[in-house]
Amino acid sequence: MENWNQETIENFRKDLLAWYDQEGRAHLPWRENTDPYRVLVSELMLQQTRVDTVITYFNRFMTALPTVQDLANAPEEQVLKLWEGLGYYSRARNLHQAAKVVVFDLKGAWPESYDDLLSLPGVGPYTAAAVASIAFNQAVPAIDGNFFRVFSRLLKIDDDIAKPKTRRVFYDAVAPIVDPKRPGDFNQAIMDLGTSYMKTNDPDTLHSPVVKYNAAFRDGVEDQYPVKSKKKKPILQRFQALVLYNEKGDLLYEQRPDSGLLAGFWTLPLRPIDSIEDLQGEQLTIKAVTHVFSHRKWEVWPVKVEQVEKLTHNQRFLSPAEQEAMALPKLQHKLLKNLKEQHDVSK
DNA sequence: AATTCGTGGAC
DNA sequence: TGTCCAAGAAT
């Protein structure tokens, strides 16, 4: 691992921020100002999610709920509807809870330190540092995937970035490098660098504004960084999805448990099966509806049924208007599309 | 510490 | 089609 002296650190800050001021992504909507609410919303949305995907969601969210008071007073259904399709829905519920803490518990007084921000729901080490540095000018490194990638190459840090304890190694190495005068810009400059010249695949390190500080590039081993162990591939699970309309043409839905995958969302009733042989009812499609989550791959077979037992407390018939008004997970949208196509074919 | 939590894009 | 990934947090 490289160890920079004070002069190198100061030169690095200067070169990095000069580039950021010229070529940074100043146009990103959440960089319009440093209102902590805007920063928090953007950071929660950006967790494990691409910038291009977030932009539309962010603008729509801020138009609907422009202040932390608006969010704190909003019904959860509205928050989830605004989040629909973005995934990792606990982020939306945590953001909602965080807004309630700020508005109702803290009377609108934002926590400004890293440690205090860390206590908000949905705010972990990265997000706390991002908000503290961007909105409150605290000099802490916001260690995300970009940060790991950029500094693993610059400093030749060999620790596996998939391991939790590696965060401390990077923190210790880079905390002295963060610019105390412009910590928020420093962190955001690292992100911009990590998605441009120092991106994951096919980087253009030679033309990077900080190429002369890049030890891995200097030694011709850039492709070895960052060190990252691989994750396991999704496990296949099969289900049959019960399709039942009532006399009004409303469709039977079932609410999922309040914890686990797609917690609390409404979908067609899903029943696990071992194989297609186990389908009970009229098979509606030749091909299954498949959906891949981060750790599960679902194969879902829609099956028309004549009735169900007496409706359980978590089952309801929903009209098209009701379905449209509520937040539905991507899987359910795929199932609806599939049903519509079957209907159109049979006509 | 290792798993669990969505989705869409790139290759 | 499969694989990996992209501004992580909670458990």
CATH topology category name of the largest domain: Endonuclease III, domain 1
Q: How many domains make up the coordinates?
A: 2
**Which word captures the global form?**
elongated
Instruction: Summarize model confidence as the mean pLDDT.
Output: 96
Number of helices: 14
β content, as a range? 5-15%
Work out the radius of gyration. Answer: 24 Å
The parts where pLDDT drops under 50 for at least 5 residues are none
The total beta strand count reads 8
Structural class, judged by helices and strands?
A: alpha+beta
CATH domain class of the largest domain: Mainly Alpha
**CATH superfamily (homologous) name of the largest domain:** Hypothetical protein, domain 2
Largest sheet: 5 strands, mixed
Secondary-structure topology with pairs:
Blueprint: H1 6-23, H2 36-46, H3 51-64, H4 68-73, H5 76-83, H6 90-105, H7 114-118, H8 125-136, H9 145-155, H10 166-174, H11 183-194, H12 215-218, E1 235-243, E2 251-255, E3 266-267, E4 270-273, E5 282-283, E6 289-292, E7 296-304, E8 315-318, H13 320-325, H14 330-346
Parallel strand pairs: 1-7
Antiparallel strand pairs: 1-4, 2-3, 2-8, 5-7, 6-7
Helix pairs in contact: 1-11, 2-3, 2-6, 2-8, 8-11, 9-11
This protein binds a DNA duplex (11 and 11 nucleotides) through residues 42-54, 85-91, 94, 121-127, 130, 142, 144-147, 163-165, 187-188, 191, 194-195, 200-201, 230-233, 260-263, 291-296, 329-331.
